[in-house]
């Protein structure tokens, strides 16, 4: 099994990029920086460890169907810390294309 989760690009146009992420237990995204503001919507219950650029680690639980928003510039690695598969959709809002 790969250490890196799978991702599928669902939509990428001038306004948004929509990606689905699927994690087996203990899989991770790998280190990345978010270029755009983004929203994550949990498909399954998500139990995540977030590793931050400054070396800090936090844990987060997001129930299936719930969502959260973050600003551009986040530098992190996300790890599925549960013993179950985890999936979410990430929607990135490209610059100068705020949806109203």
Commentary on this structure:
The chain is mostly beta strands. It has a single domain, classed as Sandwich (Jelly Rolls), CATH 2.60.120. Helix content is 0%, strand content 54%. The protein has no helices and 9 strands. The protein has strands at residues 6-12, 16-23, 32-33, 37-42, 46-52, 57-62, 67-70, 75-80, 86-93. The strands form 2 sheets. The protein has a 5-stranded antiparallel β-sheet, with no helix packed on it. Strand 1 and strand 2 (16-23) form a beta hairpin. The chain is globular and about 40 Å long. The termini are far apart. The model has no long low-confidence stretch (mean pLDDT 94).
Protein topology:
Elements: E1 6-12, E2 16-23, E3 32-33, E4 37-42, E5 46-52, E6 57-62, E7 67-70, E8 75-80, E9 86-93
Q: What is the rounded distance between the termini?
A: 41 Å
Main sheet strand line-up: 1-2-9-4-7
Radius of gyration computed on alpha carbons: 13 Å
Number of helices: 0
CATH topology: Jelly Rolls
Record field, number of beta strands: 9
- Counting helices, strands and paired strands, the structural category is mainly beta
Largest sheet data: 5 strands, antiparallel
Q: So, the CATH homologous superfamily? A: Jelly Rolls
- Into which percentage range does the β-strand content fall? over 45%
CATH class: Mainly Beta
The second-level CATH architecture is: Sandwich
Q: What overall form do the CA principal axes indicate?
A: globular
- Order of secondary-structure elements: EEEEEEEEE
Name the average pLDDT. Answer: 94
In terms of per-residue confidence, which ranges show pLDDT below 50 for 5 or more consecutive residues? Answer: none
How many domains? 1
Helicity, as a percent range: under 10%
């Amino acid at each position: 099994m790969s250490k890196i989760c799978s991702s599928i690009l669902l939509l990428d146009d001038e306004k948004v990029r929509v990606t689905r992420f699927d994690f087996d237990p203990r899989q991770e995204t790998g280190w990345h920086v978010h270029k755009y503001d983004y929203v994550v919507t949990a498909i399954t219950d998500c139990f995540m460890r977030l590793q931050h650029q400054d070396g800090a680690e936090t844990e987060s639980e997001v129930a299936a169907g719930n969502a959260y928003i973050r600003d551009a510039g986040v530098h992190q690695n996300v790890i599925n810390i549960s013993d179950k598969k985890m999936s979410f959709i990430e929607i990135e809002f490209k610059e100068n294309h705020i949806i109203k």
